[in-house]
Design brief:
Number of helices: 3
Radius of gyration: 20 Å
Largest sheet: 5 strands, antiparallel
Strand content: 5-15%
Structural class: alpha+beta
Distance between the termini: 25 Å
Shape: elongated
Number of strands: 5
Strand order of the largest sheet: 4-3-2-1-5
């Protein structure tokens, strides 16, 4: 009975990880600029995500624009987008497999088949974690490398945003 409880806990954590990865993939704050200007309609915060760029103005207006052209994006951003979507898909497939492999369910075949299904689900979660960790690390490295460049003015430098903190290898 204890192993069934551990399986349910692991399933709940995997579901939470999939939710965290999906939210992080969609959030617009992968890199954030905290610039303060004096005019009324000047941006005080600029955020860039995988799918859109957002600006928060000093008047309280929040405006976002979608990144429509894939070819104009830098390679690290294209790779991060693809890997994060793949991570979500692999984790969702792993959840489907895990639900079949749970000891407390009636579908999924014999005990032996359920064990193999649970192992396959675990492999999916490990792969999903790697598909989340590697691009997030690459993205963070790019942001920090540009931030530490002394040639650029402070107004064009960004720091890692909250989306990078919300999914430390979520699945």
């Amino acid at each position: 009975m204890l192993s069934a409880a551990i399986q349910i806990l692991a399933f709940a954590l995997a579901l939470l990880g999939l939710l965290g990865t999906t939210v992080a993939t969609l959030l617009p704050n992968w890199k954030v600029s905290m610039n303060v200007w004096s005019s009324v309609m000047t941006p005080i915060s600029q955020m860039q995500g995988l799918w859109m760029d957002c600006v928060w103005y000093s008047s309280g207006v929040f405006s976002c624009t979608m990144k429509n052209s894939v070819l104009s994006l830098p390679p690290y951003l294209q790779t991060t987008r693809a890997a994060m979507v793949l991570s979500c898909m692999v984790a969702a497939f792993g959840l489907c497999l895990a639900s079949l492999g749970l000891k407390c369910t009636r579908w999924g075949g014999s005990r032996r088949a359920k064990g193999h299904t649970a192992i396959a689900a675990g492999g999916c979660f490990i792969l999903a974690s790697l598909l989340c960790l590697v691009p997030a690390s690459w993205f963070t490295n790019e942001v920090i490398t540009v931030f530490l460049t002394t040639d650029l003015p402070d107004s064009s430098k960004y720091q890692p945003g909250g989306a990078l903190c919300s999914h430390p290898c979520s699945p």
